[in-house]
Amino acid sequence: MTMVKHGNFKTCAQSGFCARNRAYADLATSQASSWNPPYSLAPESIVFKNGQLEGTILKRVGVGGEMVRLPLVVTFLESGTARVTIDEEKRQKGDIELRHGSKARKERYNEAASWAIVGGLEVSVTAAVNKQTEKGATRVLYGPSNKFEAVIRHHPFSMEFNRDGQTQVMFGDRGLLNMEHWRPKIEKKEVEGEEKADDTKATEDEGTWWEESFGGNTDSKPRGPESVALDISFPGYEHVFGIPEHATSLSLKETRGGSGNYEEPYRLYNADVFEYEVNSPMTLYGSIPFMQAHRKDSTVGVFWLNGAETWIDVVKSRSSPNPLALGVEAAVTTQTHWISESGQLDVFVFLGPSPMDVSKAYGELTGYTQLPQHFAIAYHQCRWNYVSVEDVKDVDRKFDKHKIPYDIIWLDIEYTDGKKYFTWDPLTFGDPLSMQKQLTKNERKLVAIIDPHIKNEGGYRVVDELKSKDLAVKNKEGNIFEGWCWPGSSYWVDCFNPAAREWWKSLFRYDNWKGATSNMFIWNDMNEPSVFNGPETTMPKDNLHHGNWEHRDVHNIYGLTYHNATHHALIERKKGEVQRPFVLTRAFFAGSQRVGAMWTGDNEAKWEHLAQAFPMILANGIAGYPFAGADVGGFFGNPEKDLLTRWYQAGAFYPFFRGHAHIDTRRREPYLMGEPYTSIVTQALRLRYQLLPAWYTAFHEASVMGAPILRPHYYEFPGDERGFALDDQFFVGSTGLLAKPVVTEGADKVDIYIPDEENYYDYFDYTKYSGAGTKSIRAPLEKIPLLMRGGHIIPRRDRPRRSSGLMKWDPFTLVIVLNKAGNAEGTLYLDDGESFDYQAGAFIHRRFVFSQTSSSLVSENLAEAAGAKTAAYLKKMKKVRVEKIIIIGVGGEWVGRRVASIDEEGKQRKAKVAYHRSAGGKTAWAVIRDPGVAIGNSWKIELA
């Protein structure tokens, strides 16, 4: 039974602007062909110049009423992305009146891009109006070689985006564009005794235009109704993905009507949801309004740049096939309806055609994921709370005693003095330096929690400065906003304010935060923001931020601003100390991927929550935020040992891998589980550490291309329709590793889907699986179903260590998994894992290629050019070598091979080759022992 209190959170019917726009959609649908949308693009207003089309959309209000002017800008970017922006002239000019004497801004919020977008806005110099235009429409050619086309229809206003002669994305095709224009509130006077006219059918329902109450709070709504909405259709696309964060399937379900569909739209409104339920469109902690649509060999996407509360309906229409066309199935079109409470309409369109094309274009705009410190992708040990310095030291020693690797131990809020951040409890954490000194001996780190609510207590330096410098969020009257969170009465730092961000940096300096060291990193929680006594457990929408923007405009962006401020604070906490930050966040928005990791929040120790984690992590990766994970073991409750064991096996494949638990749960460190569980969990942890070179390479690829780290099937095999909806198995980066961890109670086998005719091999015993289709794989408790696809080379480090930092100089193993043609290739990226020196060339990036034709393995340099720090780094790494090469799937010609000839930068030598015959379904394999080649050198190994 779930503990989420649904009554604390709005449904669409309780959210006035959502209900109004859904009703508008129902009206349009009911009238169907007779529906006449009131929005037209004035042809005489259209100007196309320098890759940008400008015009004015006129909204007709009532019969013979006013015409509301809505400025339109369509920008065609050099990347092939199109951006459509619609504003409102009266609000834009400030030609409106606010109610209640409000200090809020009059404009529609227009600063979301300053937080979410960091590049990719170069305007196309080749985009041009198509001379073969049609009456009532303007056509623009753009994109690579002008192969894309935007069709802007004048009346009613709508848009189509074409590629390859086909329409891929449509705006307004159902006539649901709706921008609620400003209008004054007219108080209606009723004359006593006069019967009220029944004109409800002729007028809009004004019941939620003005003040709106929920949960004991009344939203003053000084600007009145101002929602923006648009229908976006994907003709021929059955599957849509993304728009995290929701505990639902990867392929998004329909939200209106029909068995198995949701009744509510997907909601994006960052919220502290206590013990969330699975299989729900309910809002959670983060919001990324980015959606991909996929059909066979084609991917497109849209990014709805809006930080206000947003709801998204998803429905699918199926056209009837031509009865005369044999074998032709009905086409499915996914129709979405996007509704935001305020702000501009600002939408980016990506036409692909591949998933990688869409991810890369989106990443160019919002930034690629941070390349983290190496320790951050290892295992994190956390609970609420380790109770003292001695407790932390004891846990650290016991991991060593049981030979269990880990890199980071975490402190939740109880380490502070009375929940005052930047302090230490003098009784339990009076000597934080000794704790960190012990961790440092084995290259381990400490993470401490810092939240945005600041305790309102006299004599507390941080809150005194927050107030005196006027850096907190304000209420609707313009006074400091007071709410309730963990410390009790609290104020919230306003990181939209540049002065607040500068002040926030100062708090992290070692001379300001005594007891903090360079070995300590940060966890940002409760930054939705969570306000225990606020509406929907957050702050009122009519609160005011820097620049007098209302909280309603920026709610989903707030967590990013705070996360971003902490990220930069860690970079600058000591002059001359340059290391990459690590900051975990719970709340996020588009762009949060640039500044740290996220996790899926307060899950439960239940099998369904274990199963739900992978679709959520996959959705985050698709939406450009791949550094994601879920609390291993479940935050709430006490997992039985089988569940906890399976969760560690699954967690070994989370990009962010952390065990965490609630304060009321039993201790569950792996060494407490007893045998055989402790040993099985230790093996799962060691698998993660063994594959850290492959994981770090995948993180690097994400940091330069925007590619997901966990990749769903449609991403790797975009033409295989059977795999489009799969979300319980995935590929790890471009390594060829295909994983399907067990997430079902009592399961001792899994059915894993193989999408192609290539050979796949069990990672642990080299059992061979051939032929596309579903394969049954044994999975007793100690087994993780993990396959290697032929054609890949996987880098590993096989020596077990206590932490990843102690592996820095360890040798490598290369696992060559031959494809059917006898070939394979793979990459390795390596740097110091700590500093930003890689930006000056201090890294190793190699491609390994094995050729059946030449019976050779070659290491090639992928670095385009040497940087200022390249030579020094290569010199430092010159003794780090390859100690073993394993070749899997070898043929009979390998039986006689006993020697490998090595040529490393002009120096020749020999190495021994051992051959192992196939047996019992396991493939033949060979080992080149201690070839001794340096990991950073160019070399060639030939087999005689």
UniProtKB/TrEMBL annotation:
GO biological process: carbohydrate metabolic process; N-glycan processing
UniProt keyword annotations, A-Z: Endoplasmic reticulum, Glycoprotein, Glycosidase, Hydrolase, Signal
The Glycosyl hydrolase family 31 C-terminal domain, residue ranges: 706-794
Region (Disordered): 188-226
Enzyme class: hydrolase
Catalysed transformations (reactions): Hydrolysis of terminal, non-reducing (1->4)-linked alpha-D-glucose residues with release of alpha-D-glucose
Location in the cell: Endoplasmic reticulum
Keyword Hydrolase among record annotations: yes
EC nos: 3.2.1.20
Residue intervals of the Glycoside hydrolase family 31 TIM barrel domain: 370-698
CDD domains membership: GH31_GANC_GANAB_alpha, GH31_N
Residues in Glycoside hydrolase family 31 N-terminal domain copies: 71-313
One Gene Ontology MF term: carbohydrate binding
SUPFAM superfamilies from the UniProt entry: (Trans)glycosidases, Galactose mutarotase-like, Glycosyl hydrolase domain
Pathway assigned to this chain's UniProt record: Glycan metabolism; N-glycan metabolism
PANTHER family: ALPHA-GLUCOSIDASE, BCDNA.GH04962
Family assignment from sequence similarity: Belongs to the glycosyl hydrolase 31 family.
Protein name (record): alpha-glucosidase
UniProt organism field: Glutinoglossum americanum
Taxonomic lineage from the root: Eukaryota, Fungi, Dikarya, Ascomycota, Pezizomycotina
